[in-house]
Specification:
Elements (H helix, E strand, L loop, with lengths): L4 H13 L4 E2 L7 E2 L2 E2 L9 H15 L4 E5 H4 L6 H10 L3 E6 L18 H20 L4 E5 L3 E2 L7 H16 L7 E5 L9 E2 L4 H11 L3 E6 L9 H10 L3 E6 L16 H18 L6 E4 L8 H19 L4 H9 L3 H12 L4 H10 L6 H8 L1 H16 L9
Helix pairs in contact: 1-10, 2-10, 2-14, 5-6, 6-7, 8-9, 9-10, 10-14, 11-12
The structure holds 6-deoxy-beta-L-fructofuranose (LRH) and manganese (II) ion.
Length: 401
């Protein structure tokens, strides 16, 4: 089906507004508990990660910000202002600030959910420092994910842990500056395998409400049981004005953190459809932080990131083809098949010409992935970083035990 001129206009306008944040950790060597396989071109430090993000933004035109993970990206004593300059040098900005409340030994039995008050206090201090860091690097998003939970029945008092979370989130919210948003991410399991303190959207919703008006829910697409209807959760959070953002990735089984759309592109299309439908109803696009959260354990990392961004643009554009006024009429007249057919036809419409037209109009390569490969950037980075890793004595891949 060839898009009509009005559909093409709607799609081009959607592309103008669509931005997606790349994760700094997507450029670094990552693995599973069974090992980490090193890549020569993997980023070694924050400068490499920002340089790689700059390459992605230069070629795609829609990734101006980079999500940072506080303990993975900021060296002790590193001046936030220097990090802002570094990002600017590479043509990007620092995006969401991700505190790390799972790595340090004292978080064995949790952070905000830890039975020991001094550990909860230490966790709160790290979040407050991350909020202040966000203010110093002029980022308006602090993205909270908690590995907190228990592994065995009876191990923890689930109501005490709930109340400790409410107290700590309220205290953190009080430190926010105007315009700063606290994102609360949920996850059903891993690393906790009996009860995770913030396990689903309802718990994240209640925690965000308990924290305060600048707190919203973050939907990581990999943090759902396979049978869950994620776009329905999105539709509800939108209706409650509690949808703060997404961590996009894909999965076949659990939190596999594979590249977006590699397993179920129609899933992401249905999510984007709910967002376009909400915007059509409200007459304006909701303020949502579109972010990628993937670990590129074996794919070349910059290629995987560009592939992900192109897939996100393609699915967002396809979903923008749906005529919401016409769909509302079909829905009101119970024209079930025709209503579904509108989404299916949009999903199966080739929007490459629209994407190439948008890229041309913005001085971008028609095919960012091909342009990246032609640039030789990853090959050159591989050679330079291999030598630097050797000089720094950085060793072999980590093993689980
Ligand atoms: C947890 C998670 C969280 C990040 C981490 C890298 O699974 O999705 O968002 O902090 O991955
Ligand atoms: Mn995530």
């Amino acid at each position: 089906m060839k898009p009509t001129p009005s559909q093409t206009r709607a799609a081009l306008e959607a592309l103008d507004a669509f931005q997606i944040e790349v994760p700094s950790w997507g450029f670094a060597d990552t693995g599973t508990r069974f090992g980490k396989y090193l890549q020569d071109a993997a980023a070694i430090d924050l400068n490499d990660k920002l340089a790689d993000a700059g390459q992605v933004h230069r070629l795609t035109g829609c990734c101006p910000t980079v999500a940072v993970h506080v303990l993975w990206d900021f060296q002790p004593g590193q001046k936030p202002a220097d990090v802002v300059k570094l990002a600017k040098k590479h043509g990007v900005r620092i995006g969401s600030i991700n505190p790390n409340l799972f790595q340090d030994q004292h978080y064995k039995y949790g952070s905000f959910g830890n039975p020991r008050a001094e550990v909860r206090e230490a966790a709160l201090q790290h979040v407050v420092e991350s909020i202040e860091l966000g203010q110093q690097v002029r980022s308006d998003l602090v993205s909270l994910w908690f590995a907190d939970g228990t592994n065995y029945p009876g191990q923890g008092n689930l109501r005490d842990r709930k109340r400790w979370f409410e107290q700590c989130l309220k205290a953190a919210h009080r430190k926010l500056a105007r315009g700063q948003t606290l994102l609360v991410e949920y996850k059903p399991f891993e690393p906790a395998f009996y009860a995770t303190d913030i396990a689903d959207w309802g718990m994240a919703f209640l925690m965000a409400k308990a924290a305060g008006p600048q707190a919203k829910v973050l939907v990581d697409t990999g943090h759902h049981y396979v049978a869950q209807n994620i776009e329905q959760i999105v539709a509800w959070l939108l209706d409650e004005d509690m949808l703060g953002g997404f961590h996009f990735n894909d999965r076949r089984y659990a939190d596999d953190d594979l590249t977006l759309g590699s397993i179920d592109p129609y899933q992401i299309f249905r999510i984007f459809h709910e967002i376009h439908a909400y915007a059509a109803e409200r007459g304006k696009a909701p303020k949502i932080a579109y972010m990628i959260d993937q670990s590129h354990n074996d794919k070349p990392k910059i290629e995987a990131t560009i592939q992900t961004v192109m897939m996100a643009q393609e699915l967002y554009t396809k979903a923008a083809l749906v005529d919401h006024a016409k769909l509302a009429v079909l829905q009101s007249r119970e024209r079930q098949v025709d209503a579904e057919e509108m989404l299916r036809r949009a999903f199966f419409t080739d929007v490459t010409p629209i994407l190439q037209r948008w890229r041309k109009a913005n001085g971008l390569p028609a095919d960012p992935l091909a342009a990246h490969r032609k640039s030789g950037y990853e090959k050159a980075a591989g050679a330079e970083r291999k030598a630097r890793r050797k000089a720094l004595g950085l060793g072999a891949g980590g093993s689980y035990a």
